[in-house]
Design goal:
The protein is an alpha/beta fold. The protein has a single domain, classed as NADP-dependent oxidoreductase domain (TIM Barrel, Alpha-Beta Barrel). 41% of the residues lie in helices and 14% in strands. The protein contains twelve helices and ten strands. Helix 4 links the parallel strand 5 and strand 6. Helix 4 crosses helix 5. The longest helix has 16 residues. InterPro entries: AKR (IPR020471), LGALDH-like (IPR044479), NAD(P)_OxRdtase_dom_sf (IPR036812), NADP_OxRdtase_dom (IPR023210). It holds the Pfam family Aldo_ket_red.
Length: 346
């Protein structure tokens, strides 16, 4: 059984469940983060209608069961995720969790989506704190840096402003997030010792194992590593992705084939995906979106209990016959974004 973390509160947490959770060192931050983390991109309209009452109960259940790392962003529902989190966290002791939010990516509309300026960065942090009902966040992350035309504004304007915000006590640590791993590496190399954490999403899944080749670099830079979205933004589930998913049809067809095999076997692809993604060595925490207690139970079951014999057999079948090469959608979102921005100027 795991030792209880500094975030454990006797009259709040379920001690038995917390002792089953593994807590890991998170870079040089001193934080001890739960192996399973709560992503809240699902607390928005990205994944259909949100039952706010159920979402709040899910957040409470997740934290009481030992999950102590929560990730959100202004981009998730243009503040809706932070707002719902704020509603839930009113009834949770502040010492019971670590929370990370972001700056830099904001709205769905292309012209208002990206802003890495110092002014917007500060405004964003202040708004996030208001919505969350907090005096500080544990980690403030620069969100999806690949959307910057070049990294100069990220490194020379956004990052220094975040350093000021940390000195003011409104955040404790600074992180960086993105989809293209090479861009994350470039940003970290250009700003040595400036970042405390890195979040890479959908880059260690049944579809794509490319994060493995960057792990040594991230570890050598003493970063807390967040391995996010083992379900590849909903691709690796029986229900399949939302219409906005940036993957091309080849990838979607492969995932539909996998989902159909799982449905025929009465197995949930999402559980297999969750189990597989948590096998990556070296990550501090594994972040996944969960807006219902049912999804929370499925994901925690994959962690606590592993897979049944039948599920193991289906996973092996998928790896041998469906997920036979590493695939990603890198460039798709950026191509769409820059084409739209160019069209706006004409």
């Amino acid at each position: 059984m795991s030792k209880l973390p500094p975030t454990f509160i006797a009259d709040f947490h379920d001690e038995k469940l917390c002792k089953r959770m593994e807590y890991r060192k998170f870079g040089l931050t001193g934080l001890q983060v739960s192996k399973v983390a709560l992503g809240t991109g699902t607390l928005s309209d990205f994944y259909g209608d949100l039952d706010v009452d159920e979402a709040i109960k899910t957040i409470h259940s997740a934290i009481k069961s030992g999950i102590n790392y929560i990730d959100t962003a202004p981009f998730y529902g243009q503040g809706r995720s932070e707002e719902v989190l704020g509603m839930a966290l009113k009834d949770v002791p502040r010492e019971a969790y670590y929370i990370a939010t972001k700056v830099g990516r904001y709205e769905k509309t292309f012209e208002n989506m990206i802003d890495f300026s110092a002014k917007k960065t500060r405004e964003s942090v202040e708004k996030s704190l208001r919505l969350l009902g907090l005096d500080y966040v544990d980690i403030i992350q620069i969100h999806d840096i690949e959307f910057a035309k070049d990294l100069d504004i990220v490194i020379n304007e956004c990052l220094p402003e975040l350093e000021k915000i940390v000195k003011e006590g409104k955040a404790k640590f600074i992180g960086v997030t993105g989809y293209p791993l090479s861009r994350l590496k470039e940003c970290i190399e250009r700003a040595p010792s400036k970042f405390d954490s890195v979040l890479a999403y959908a880059r260690y899944t049944l579809l794509d194992d490319s994060l493995k080749s960057y792990m040594d670099f991230f570890q050598q830079n003493n970063l807390g590593i967040v391995c996010a979205s083992g379900h590849a933004l909903g691709l690796l589930t029986n229900a399949g992705p939302q219409v906005w998913h940036p993957a091309g049809e080849e990838i979607k067809d492969i995932c539909r084939k996998a989902a159909n095999i799982c449905k025929e076997a009465n197995v949930e692809l999402g559980k297999l995906a969750m189990y597989y993604f948590m096998q990556l060595d070296g990550a501090g925490t594994f972040l996944t979106g969960m807006q219902t207690r049912k999804l929370l139970d499925i994901n925690l079951s994959a962690y606590y209990n592993g897979l049944t014999k039948k599920e193991q057999e289906v996973l092996q079948l998928l790896r041998e016959t469906v997920f036979t090469k590493s695939l990603n959608w890198e460039g798709n979102e950026l191509d769409t974004y820059w084409a739209a921005m160019k069209a706006k100027k004409q």
